[in-house]
Amino acid sequence: MRKDYSQPLYRPPSEAWSMIIQVTEGCSHNKCRFCYMYKGKQFRLKSIEEIKEHIEWLKPMYKNPRRIFLADGNVLCLKTEKLLELLNYIKKEFPNIERISSYSGPLDLLRKTDQELKSIREAGLELLYMGVESGSDKVLSMMNKGVNQQEMIEAGHKAINAGFKFSCMIISGLGGREFMEEHAVESAKVISAIAPHYFSLLRLVAEESSELAECIEEGKFKLLTPLQVLDENILMLENLELTDCIFRANHVSNHVNLAGTLNQDRDLLIDKLKRVRKSPNFIPNTYTGL
Ligand code: SF4
Fold this sequence. Notes:
This protein is α/β, with parallel strands linked by helices. It has eleven helices and ten strands.
């Protein structure tokens, strides 16, 4: 039985110091056109015995972990009883744990009942990350995300109402040039409607192994220039209506790093982007390492 990680392994930037327990392998959807993350992996749920062996393998490397991230893509695909058993086991093995988190697919959230989600939250899973990617129905459909705008909002509300801390991600540039404005405005609408505790903005990077790379090659999808990305970010920020939401655009893919609380810091963030936009010396962060 395999005890180490099946690669590749992904986690959000904010889980850089967390112990990662691999509970599932791959993504149960695995059809988003822009995504390359788990293309080479067949999705599967690990058995409890397998996960316990994996935890035994991890223990010597993490004496007293404070944070745990459950990977890979769809931890909420696990049957609720199995997830509750796992969370109780983790808390027994690591009594000083302060936070357990995982990715959450919108379809997985929609499939669980409110009561199931509440019991999972009470058992110790505290923070969920959901890739909204875009709020536009056109872009969600074009990218084959598998859910529409309304389902995305509903999934977010279910998580927040169950008591989870909730973090949403949007991918800047995902509408391409054709849907740039629509992507900005509709994404702002969906994030505002969900009202997550955390909101991160990443930028589209079309990896060779993604379906989207072929569309770009064939001229069917046009990537935004760095200045268009800034314009799109400004439009998105202008349309957001949030309260006390921690906002970050500090991923390696972002041309300009941004951090603040929305909407309190919105004007400052927009001013910064406009200043950078006008500057003849603007060099995207993503170019400086080249
Ligand atoms: S973006 Fe998320 S849901 Fe879509 S294929 Fe990639 S991991 Fe799966």
